[in-house]
Structures are given as C-alpha cells and as structure tokens.
Amino acid sequence: MTVLKANLAVRFVANTWTICTMFWMISEFIYTTYIQYSFMTTINKIHAIKILDSRANWTVEVDVNGTACASPAGASTGIHETATIPADVACDFINKKLSHAFIGETIDQKKIDAQLKFLTSKIGANGSIATSFAIYNLLRDENQKNIFPYPLGNIFGGGAHGGTIDIQEVLICPKKAKTFPDAIKRMTDTYHDLKKNLKNKGLQVGMNDEGALTANIGFIELMDTLKPIADKHGCLIGLDVAASELYASDKYFYKKMGKTLTTKEQIEFILHLIKKYKLFYVEDPMHEEDFKNTGILFSKNKKTLITGDDLTTTNTERIKKAIGHINGMIVKPNQIGTVTQTINAIEMCKKNGITPVISHRSGETTDSTISKMALDFEIPLIKCGIADMRTAKLNELLRLWDEADKPKMAKF
Fold first, then answer.
1. With 90 as the cut, is the pLDDT of residue 5 above it?
2. Is the full-model pTM beyond 0.85?
3. Architecture of domain 46-139 in CATH?
C-alpha cells in the first residue's frame, strides 16, 4: 500500500509538473507573440544617431523597432528641394521630442509621414526621410517582386561633383542585358575598359564624389573614347547636364570647354550630342525654371528620355508643370522628405507617361531602400554609381534577383 501511495504521489507530481510546464510554454508563446505583434504594429523604439556619409559628412540614421535607415545628401541640389538641417540638430529633436510623441503610435506609413512632413522644419529632410525609410522597411511586403530595374551608372564625372568636364555626369545603361547580374557585368566591364583606355593615354585616373572616373580629358574626346567601348558591351550612353550649375545671366557657361551659349544654342548643342552619340537619356538639359525650353528640346527628340531632376525635385506640384515637357523624372526621396510623397510623385509620373528613374545622391550611405523601392514600384531605371559605396544599392538588387521567383528586367 505504501508503494502504491508513493507511485501515485510521483505520478501526481509528474502530471502537475507537465501541466505547469505546458502552461508556462503557452504563456511564453502568447507573450512572445504579443511582443512580436506589438513590434510589428506599434512604434516601441525610435532613436537617431549621426553617421558619416561617403563624403565624410555627418548625416542622420534613425532606428525604428530595430530597423535602421539613413539619409543621403546632394551636392548639386535644386532650389525647390526640402531643406536639410545639421545632423546633430535633427538627431537631438528626434531623440528628445519626436520619440516621445511617436512611441505607441501605430506603424502606418501615411499617418507617420504626414506628421514628419509637418515637422520638416525641426528635423529637416534628412531626419524625416531616414525615419520614413525605416517605417517603409518595417512594413514592406517582400513577396512577388520580380521586375528589376536597369542600372544607370555614372561612369565619368564633372561639374559640381568634381572633375575636368562641365557636364556633371556621363552615364551608361546596359540595355542589352537580359538579367540583372548580366547588366552589372556589362556596366562594370565598360567602366574597367574606359579606365584602362584612359590610363593607356597617359592620363592619371581618379574618382569623384560619386565614384565616377575623372581624368584630365576634354568632354568631346571623352565621349569619342567611350562610345565604342559602350557599344562593345551593349551599353547606351546618357548625360546629366545639371544645366542650372552652368546657367547665369541668361547664358550657359561651359568654362572648361571655353563656350558661352544662349538658350537657343544650348538646345542645339544638346540635340547635336544626342544625334552624334545616340544618347538615350539627357537629364536637366536646361536650367531648373525653364519648363518651356525643356519642352522644346523634348518635342524635337521624343525617343530620348528628357529627364527632370532640379526641374521637378520629386514634387507633385512641379511635376504637374512639367507634364508634356519631359518624358523622364528623377526620383530622389530625400528631395521631398517622405516615402508617401515620393510614392505620390512616382504615381503621377506613371499616369502621365513620364518614366520614373530612382536615384542616389552624391553623399551616400550603405542604405539600400531605393533598391527595394525600384522593385516595389516597378521603376525601370535606378541611377547610382558603379564603384565605392554605391555598390550597396547594386549588391542588394543582386541578392534580391537571386531570391526572386522568375525575375525579369523592366521595360522602358
């Protein structure tokens, strides 16, 4: 009888332990699920720090619920861009005031972005876009993204980015590529071949702010050198003129070329370059307020992407003015300050036959949000450098291509 009682006692203790263990496991599961759901649906953490960009300048990185994103910065900026503020000022406001206001808020892109837009004078475009990027990445659906952009690479630099030519960027696009990895190979092969060719000319080759090549060579000689190399690798050529940087007193001053052009002569010069080098893309060919003459240039060559950047600044009000005058538009989220406003600009472009081109800035970080946005909104071109920190955007797209189900290249 004593043995029976002992066995029953042991069984009772064992069953009680099992029940308690199961109860603990269920409670732990419920608690963990609640915490995870809470992190997915509400803001539990927001913290900003200063980090260095590619030009060793301070910029803002914001961490929301463990997802950290950073703001880039431009060198050649349009006068209609949303203003930035010193990184330490933006971080101080985010950490001391914004974080307290946002903790517990539902993670809702439009709602959060509306508040960020209202606070841009306090946190700047650099603080607002870093925060908005973090929210976007938290909410992003990673499934069913298989239309990939063509890279538009800055192969040779000048203008405000530093270099020996007046034109700000000479660009290449591997349009003959059938896959994204092939596109990167064609683009980098062109880059290395041009670099080798310039060195063979006895030139010292360097890199500018955007990782583009620089050398003491004239613009026309450069273009004549690049064209056969680009053709060999199946790449098209484009230009970012950044004409506002050349414009003063109703004239365009090409100081390194020794030219001063009237507006009419500027149009003729750009048309000449389009014809001679079969340019598929020309960005900001006229100064940033000249919608009329940008439109005249577009009307004379509709096969080329006449693209607005300083002209449009990712701003729907300026895009409205540009409709009918351009057929391409640069998308720079930090120009406008939030993801929601950026999406509005993309949608307006698409509705009006304007090809969106998502773009980096000259002062960059390893943040790859624009790569994901290119996929999410089926943007056919992503403009970034070919070397240095710019490879973060390209490498992210290479990873996503590898993970995608039946990926294919965009059409434009």
1. no
2. yes
3. 2-Layer Sandwich (3.30)
